[in-house]
Design a protein that fits this description.
It contains eleven helices and 20 strands. By secondary structure, it is an alpha+beta fold. The strands form six sheets. Strands 4, 5, 6, 7, 8 and 11 form a six-stranded antiparallel beta sheet that branches. Strands 12, 13, 14, 15, 16 and 19 form a six-stranded antiparallel beta sheet that branches. A two-stranded antiparallel ribbon has the order 1-2. The protein is elongated, with a radius of gyration of 26 Å.
């Protein structure tokens, strides 16, 4: 495992731990407000690695870093209850409901403030509602639909195209479903139908369309690498390799790998204060045993060609935009669940804690603002998912409280324990399946 992946995992764990801390802090503060005795405040599960006890509460960091919990006296239906006045189960229904809601509410509020900050600083927004196609993958759904590089996408499923992220989301949740696009070609406007295919074995749809990009040299090549010896420098833009245009990471990887070590000609741009020069150099790729393919020693970066603009917003506008984005983010998970039921997204497309850690770490290393935006997305979905009326979620506690209000008395400890054990068994099975998928996906990405 490279140092890059180690940093990715560390940053991912820090990001997930922050969201868990925010969630559990909500429960903790609400419990303290309601004068409920808190036994443990833990980030992570399992063996306690670091702990400190203050005023009867143990604060700790535990060995398994995927999640956390606040343990309150009288909360667990499988434990013997002492019926003390500061136990959770003897509190009024409204107090118990407040404690249950506080965790998800803190996640949603936290996401809202993150989004507000992003919009005030300036979030990259689409320059126009027209998407100019840069790359169409060979034998892809887009090529089959007749879309070509240079075409312009005006509408997606009857709605104006609003940035590449929206297009990718629509394709991701539409495996095998025909989507109508209105595009502009050299011959004029026309309507086409595109049917996304599953991307690898990831369970999501892909059309094989990419925006206009330039591939640049992200860091100075090592002097003893083929690129270093040929004089390629940091920030040079790679135009072509052996006559093949490079417009995406994968182009570079495929062309260099296919060379099987024979000499290739690399054409690149170098910008200076006065002008931009087009240069070329010949080099022979070297075999890398660790990743099992040929390399020229270039670490690639990717930048879009003026597809986005950064627009800082005043506080009032930022608050409105954050509220709108929060609503969209909070309902995204239901759209995905609906698509999973219809078979347009595979169950394996879901990510658990392992996958979330991988994605947070990867995005954090590439772009801090995108990482903050991703944290907001995960935080708000963590809040929404925990409000679902499932036995092992905060929404499950609210459901039990609703039943108690209707019946005039709570369900018996034995009944609650049975329901929670059954639900826990289901979620453990689902967690193990998703974790297996996450690890398989991570192993594939690390190749």
């Amino acid at each position: 495992m490279s140092i890059y992946w180690i940093f990715q995992i560390i940053l991912g764990l820090l990001g997930l731990s922050l969201l868990v801390f925010v969630h559990e802090l909500g429960h903790f503060l609400a419990a303290k407000f309601c004068k409920v005795r808190v036994l443990t405040f833990s980030i992570g599960f399992g063996k306690k690695l670091l702990k400190i006890t203050r005023n009867g509460t143990t604060y700790c960091i535990s060995a398994i870093p995927f999640g956390g919990y606040v343990a309150m006296a009288g909360e667990d239906p499988e434990q013997i209850r002492q019926n003390r006045p500061d136990d959770f189960h003897v509190q009024a229904i409204w107090k118990r409901a407040l404690i249950a809601i506080a965790g998800p509410a803190f996640n949603i509020i936290f996401a809202f403030f993150l989004l507000t900050g992003i919009y005030m600083i300036g979030n990259p927004e689409p320059v126009s509602d027209r998407l100019v196609v840069g790359i169409v993958e060979p034998e892809s759904a887009a090529e089959e639909a007749g879309i070509a590089s240079g075409d312009t996408i005006f509408t997606i499923a009857g709605k104006k195209a609003n940035g590449w992220e929206k297009l990718r989301e629509e394709m991701a949740i539409s495996i095998g479903r025909s989507i109508a696009l209105e595009i502009g070609t050299k011959e004029g406007r026309k309507a086409v139908a595109i049917v996304p295919r599953e991307l690898g074995n990831l369970g999501i749809g892909n059309a094989g369309i990419h925006p206009r990009h330039r591939v640049f040299v992200a860091s100075s090549p090592k002097e003893d690498s083929p690129a270093g010896k040929a004089g390629i420098k940091q920030n040079d833009t790679i135009l072509s390799v052996d006559g093949h245009i490079v417009g995406y990471y994968q182009d570079m990887i495929d062309i260099v790998s296919a060379s099987e070590g024979r000499e290739v000609e690399v054409v690149f741009l170098r910008a200076s204060e006065k002008n931009v020069d087009t240069l070329s150099a010949a080099m022979s790729p070297l075999w890398n045993e660790e990743i099992e393919r040929y390399l020229i020693g270039v670490q690639m970066g990717l930048a879009q060609f003026d597809e986005l603009k950064v627009v800082p917003q005043p506080l009032g506008t930022a608050l409105v935009m954050a509220a709108e984005r929060s609503c969209i983010m909070g309902t995204t998970v239901f759209r995905y669940i609906y698509r999973i039921i219809k078979g347009e997204v595979k169950l394996r497309a879901m990510s658990g804690p392992v996958g979330i850690v991988q994605v947070i770490g990867l995005v954090w290393l590439e772009n801090l603002q995108k990482a903050v935006f991703l944290l907001a997305l995960i935080s708000i979905n963590l809040g929404v998912m925990n409000l679902l009326p499932l036995a092992v979620t905060d929404g499950g506690i609210l459901l039990f409280l609703f039943v108690e209000k209707i019946r005039g008395k709570p369900l018996s400890q034995k009944t609650q324990a049975r329901i929670q054990r059954g639900a826990l068994a289901f979620f453990i099975a689902l967690f193990l399946y998703i974790t297996f998928v996450d690890l398989s996906r991570g192993a594939m990405l690390m190749r």
